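Protocol step 4 of 5: obtain the predicted structure for the target chain.
Materials: sequence only (see below). No template structures provided, no constraints applied. The aim of this step is simply to have a reference model before the mutagenesis design in step 5. Sequence pasted as it appears in the construct record:
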Amino acid sequence: MVRKDMLAQGLVEPENEEEQALVQALRQPKEDPDAKLKESVTNQQNAEAGNLQASSIDKIASAEKKGAQTQKILADIENDKGKLFLNAQKQLMERRENVIETVQSLPLQ
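Step 4 output (structure tokens):
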């Protein structure tokens, strides 16, 4: 046991194949026991980030669509105002013409 510790610390050189194999095994990097857990958490976080990004893009597109719809509504209102104004002008001109005709048809005294 003491010799193993000394081999592990590099205090003594291996004397046989078994000790040589032990030293090589000790020098190889150990697999992180939490590596799979870390990878799984990372993958989950990446998936959540992707979902959040997709949701943000969807919300931006929805807001832009609503903005375009609002602009169309405002344009339609302006168009309707113009039509109402022209219609009111037309009615006013027709009434004026009717008044003029009525006045002209009155007998002069």
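Step 4 remarks: The chain has one domain: 2-27+37-105. The chain has three helices and no strands.
Proceed to step 5.
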